[in-house]
């Protein structure tokens, strides 16, 4: 599976006979060959940034095993939330009287989430304002990709239905990212409490 070919499905070119012959990847192909590698980027970048930029904090308060546990939690949260959002997207499509399969819903969510995964590469830049701008641009790109996915993958052409379904998916995705953030914080707190309990014993 060529990852760049995924973006052909949200282009008018995918309607041409030469491009239409390219079959869509299966759910397992998407998850193993595209989603999993990109989901590792935020985990690896978080680990590297804390280790290289805050060595004293890392040694004193963030031992490697604890940080690895949070990174693993973040990875599984990303995978689980993406699958959940794809399922919700599949059901939201009934608002505009279409019944897409799960693969198409996952394809849209995968393509739309790509800018958010790639923004993690900019964590190496030690500037909060820069990263805020990069994330804002990524959010706008994700919204655009959702819109194009609904239009060309779900084949929704009526403008009202297109905008309504796109915004519903964007709101759902926003809740999904909030779940990832809250889940990571809860996991961190649980690990803190566990370590405190072990030390008391």
TrEMBL record:
Predominant subcellular localization, coarse grouping: membrane
A GO cellular component entry from the record: membrane
Protein localization: Membrane
Membrane-spanning residues: 30-48, 68-93, 105-126, 132-150, 162-186
Pfam families xrefs: Yip1
Organism per entry: Methylophilus medardicus
Keywords, alphabetical: Membrane, Transmembrane, Transmembrane helix
Domain Yip1: 18-177
Membrane topology, from the record: Multi-pass membrane protein
Name this protein carries in UniProt: YIP1 family protein
InterPro entries the record matches: Yip1_dom
């Amino acid at each position: 599976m060529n990852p760049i070919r995924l973006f052909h499905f949200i282009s008018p070119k995918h309607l041409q006979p030469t491009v239409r012959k390219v079959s869509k990847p299966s759910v397992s192909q998407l998850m193993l060959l595209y989603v999993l590698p990109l989901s590792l980027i935020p985990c690896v970048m978080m680990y590297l940034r804390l280790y290289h930029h805050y060595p004293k904090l890392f040694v004193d308060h963030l031992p490697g095993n604890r940080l690895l546990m949070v990174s693993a939690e973040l990875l599984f949260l990303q995978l689980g939330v993406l699958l959940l959002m794809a399922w919700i997207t599949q059901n939201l499509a009934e608002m505009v009287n279409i019944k897409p399969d799960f693969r198409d819903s996952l394809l849209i969510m995968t393509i739309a989430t790509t800018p958010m995964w790639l923004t993690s590469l900019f964590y190496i830049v030690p500037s909060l304002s820069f990263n805020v701008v990069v994330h804002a641009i990524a959010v706008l790109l994700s919204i655009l990709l959702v819109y194009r996915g609904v239009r060309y993958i779900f084949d929704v052409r009526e403008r009202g239905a297109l905008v309504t379904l796109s915004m519903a998916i964007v709101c759902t995705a926003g809740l999904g990212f909030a779940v990832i953030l809250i889940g990571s914080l809860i996991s961190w707190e649980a690990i803190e409490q566990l370590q405190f309990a072990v030390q008391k014993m």
